[in-house]
Amino acid sequence: MTTRVAIQGVCDPRFQGVKEAFAQNFADHGEAGAAVAVVVGGRTVVDLWGGHADAALSRPWQQDTIVNVFSTTKGMTAICAHRLTDEGLLDIDAPVAKYWPEFAQAGKEELPVRYLLSHRAGLPAVRAMLPPGSAYDWERMTSVLAAEEPWWEPGSKHGYHALTFGYLVGEVVRRISGQSLGTYFRKEIAEPLGLDFHIGLSEQNDARVAEMLPMPLPEPGEDNLIAKAFSDPQSMTFKAFANPPDLMVPATVNSRQWRAAEMPAANGHSDARSLARIYGALAQGGELDGFAVLSLDEIERARVEQSYGDDAVLLGLPSRFGLGFMLDLPEHKIVPQGDMFGHPGAGGSIGFADPESGIGFGYVMNKMIVPPDYFVDPRWRGLIDATYAAL
């Protein structure tokens, strides 16, 4: 017998279908705890949460619960870079070495910032296996990446920089602003816009962080994308996700060390309303409640396709990127109409903007799953379709 989960929060009557789809996710997809929020035309029309924030199902998901959103963090990192571009402090077509002189090693002297943002730099992984804990050491990670030789000729193809994206773009932001990526994001964007989104989480927030319930690792002999990715420890794909090696230990993401570090590609902690709010700003010209995140021109530039096709890291699966943002795949559409830009995260979280419809969307959860088709999480489908049906 399925116990009906109490859904809390607010929902404009016009968007009742979103609330119904959210409740259905608990019944149909075994949702543990989650939240969804939608901003349309600058107004919050959905802000819902429900379920539990722990594996034991003993701690209710609250209004102020936040959770690790993995690669959904990349969208915030991209926004930081674009804000510097808006201010005339960053030229994305200039060599990375203009801002980060140590980067001019191993044939990377002319590699432009644009390639970092579009996953074309050829630096998705570090070849030499790093000791456990290296991901938390900013200086170590940026030093090894500065010295690393690209895995392919930069610009010749693209491949998902799952972890390194954050250090690469984050170090450019740090060199220009004089602040770490997490600090810059907090001071320049999160606090002025009222976001509960953290890249580098203080211990005082631990009590309201939901426990991540990791997806199971593949069984020996199992034939799926994850199993293939981890079949060859010497491969680029393996090292992109499992170097340093402790990144694949399930308990890692619930540790204080993980939460405290600034890993701008992977360890942001947020609620759904913060994602909907910042993408809601980008969906209506870059401004919300009197605060300008980005100019309209910069938003339009950020969402222009830079990379599309077989992904060199994801074993040939297709991917499509603008400048730091993931774009909708024509063959695996996330939104039923228009064209979104934003970023999903491993296991299920997502935030995106759709300027044509004026939508900012955010969804977070603590039960990680691998979508059957690897592209669109089945929990998104009902939520997003119901959102568009209400327009």
How would you portray this structure in words?
This protein has 391 residues and is α+β, with helices and mostly antiparallel strands. The protein has one domain (7-201, 209-389): 3-Layer(aba) Sandwich (Beta-lactamase), CATH 3.40.710.10. The protein has helices at residues 16-29, 73-86, 96-99, 113-117, 138-147, 164-177, 181-193, 225-229, 236-242, 256-260, 272-282, 296-302, 378-389; strands spanning 7-11, 33-40, 43-51, 67-68, 269-270, 287-288, 291-292, 307-310, 318-321, 326-327, 341-344, 350-354, 359-365. The strands form 4 sheets. It has a 7-stranded antiparallel beta sheet, with helices on both faces. A hairpin with a 2-residue loop joins strand 6 and strand 7 (291-292). The longest helix is centred in the first third of the chain and has 14 residues, at 16-29. The chain is globular, with a radius of gyration of 20 Å. The model has no long low-confidence stretch (mean pLDDT 95).
Remind me, CATH topology?
Beta-lactamase
Radius of gyration: 20 Å
Strand content: 5-15%
Shape: globular
Strand order of the largest sheet: 1-3-2-13-12-11-10
Measured between the Cα atoms of the first and last residue, the distance is: 35 Å
Short description:
With 391 residues, the protein is α+β, with helices and mostly antiparallel strands.
Sequence-ordered SSE layout with sheet pairings:
Elements: E1 7-11, H1 16-29, E2 33-40, E3 43-51, E4 67-68, H2 73-86, H3 96-99, H4 113-117, H5 138-147, H6 164-177, H7 181-193, H8 225-229, H9 236-242, H10 256-260, E5 269-270, H11 272-282, E6 287-288, E7 291-292, H12 296-302, E8 307-310, E9 318-321, E10 326-327, E11 341-344, E12 350-354, E13 359-365, H13 378-389
Helix pairs in contact: 1-13, 2-6, 5-6
